[in-house]
Protein: Jg4817 protein
Amino acid sequence: MGRREDPAWAMGTVGLTAARERGDIRRKFQNSLTVTRSMIDRLGLEKELHGHMGCVNCLEWNRNGSILASASDDLHVILWDPYKHKQLCNVSTGHTGNIFSVKFISDDLIATCAADGSVRARAVTGSASMLECSCHCGRVKRLAVTPEKPHMVWSAGEDGLVLQHDLRAPHHCNTDSKNVLVNLLNHMGRYAEAKCLALNPRRPYQMAVGANDFYVRLYDIRMIKLARLQIEEEEEEVSHWGVTPVWSSSSARSI
Structure:
């Protein structure tokens, strides 16, 4: 007489739990209860959101998860409703190079950085721009923001600099701009590139910076004075942006 097959419900969580209570415990019980067939069947692609005309390079949720921002090579940022799977707003950023990072300053304000070397902040509706900074002389790879300082934006660029942007003050890109927070050229030489940065959500004054070497550098930004950009002349008579550092190396440590 053949073995009677278990009903479908017996292979689910309820059936397996009941079997354990009866003493019918198998070696595979724990794994079966952790990963059930019904759970696997529920996993999968929920929805494809269509709207961009180029590669999507970065994504960002707002603080409560009600809005998803996507930024693309098409130079646009799209805000999505992740529950209704619909487009809320399509923002033309004004960038002329691929966008690498997007951050929410608030639900109606976003900051972006791109391959064109610029950092921008603007309202998601209307044409008002809060920041247009081109102080970096290379691609700008990442941004950081913190709700503790909603008027501040930090940017990491492949020119080896981390810049601090105060949205409350008007900005002009010139040698009077005192916005250099970290100068990796001092530590790594002329080929230094800042690749990423992040602020500690519990200690928003603690910044981590990643670069094109083997280290993660931690900074207490309370202990750093902003430096001023200046133009230096090389022997080949080619101008480039540089900085005059005024902060102590003791304010950073590598791990």
About this structure: The first strand starts at residue 56 and ends at 61.
